[in-house]
Amino acid sequence: MTAPHGPALVVRGPHDLVVEQRTAPAPGPGQLLVTPSHVGLCGTDLEIIDGDLDPAYVSLPLVLGHEWSGRVAAVGANADDSLAGAPVVVEGVLACGVCRECRRGATNLCTDYDELGFTTDGALGPGVVVPAHLVHRLAADVPVEAGALVEPAAVVLRGLREIRPVPGDRVLVIGDGTVALLAAMLVRLWSPAHVTIAGRRAEQSELAHTSHADAFTTGDPERAAYDLVVEAAGSTAAVETAVQAVRRGGRVLVLGIAGHGQTARIPVDDLVNNDITLRGSFSYTAASWAEVVRLLNSGTIDPLPLVTHRFGLDAFEEAIKILRAGDGSPRGKVMFVLGEDAPR
């Protein structure tokens, strides 16, 4: 086959974003070439563009795109030929599989960190060559676009598994972006008594209810009222609010990235005296990724209604503008639609 060739969205340096023509490499033994069809844009991409992400986790120049789905275009030697043409999602964490962390299942903490769209070129280009064992087939009745939400859902699910929700919990989710909306959706797996989303944009109320939240507020959350608080806003103020909102003996899960070097003011004595569990969660594991794919393929979750804005790659500036500032309408996932699926 002819190697896929086409435009790629490349970050060359802080605030230096260009479209370049790229040719996808051929897959080697045990590899697959996947042509992306849908690529989500998220706040972490903005941090990469702006140069705000911890430099230990990004290498430039870089093709963006870590939330994505696509179709298998070519199969390398010793890989499964039956995957040719299949709709798939691909784990982005390129774990070594042999270090101490990988051996205990913490592939997100692999000591040889490498990740598509962060340290290795991502999916906003003509094609991505990946190890076949990282590729997961989507069920025939699952829209391939929904697969692009597996990555943020896996981030959320891994964090929830670590913080261990309890049936009957009163849950507060701080934030009203895609990660927060997915947190409200996924925490339902544990049968909470009530889920509240606290956001900043009133127009997000409809999306909050789409995510099965019981309530949405733009006001200050009640203090010391929640069994579990999930911080998904990506700000130091949100972390401080989370600690204030959790009850004695409660748990706080921090998922947001506030920016490299940013610090929150947390009263340490309150953490101790109120017996509060404060837990950060980085990325996702291979296990959490596989679990989200199972939930999606079985129809247990349907994140597709969270996609609100779709763009072709040629409209990348408008897509970034919408993600930064919105347009006054509800804004969930901003999605690039590529190749044959692209808007005409």
UniProtKB/TrEMBL annotation:
Belongs to the zinc-containing alcohol dehydrogenase family. It comes from the Bacteria. Residues 13-336 form the Enoyl reductase (ER) domain. Keywords: Metal-binding, Oxidoreductase, Zinc. This is Alcohol dehydrogenase catalytic domain-containing protein. InterPro entries: ADH-like_C, ADH-like_N, ADH_Zn_CS, ER, GroES-like_sf, NAD(P)-bd_dom_sf. The keyword rRNA-binding does not apply. GO terms for molecular function: oxidoreductase activity; zinc ion binding. Its cofactor is Zn(2+). SMART domains: PKS_ER.
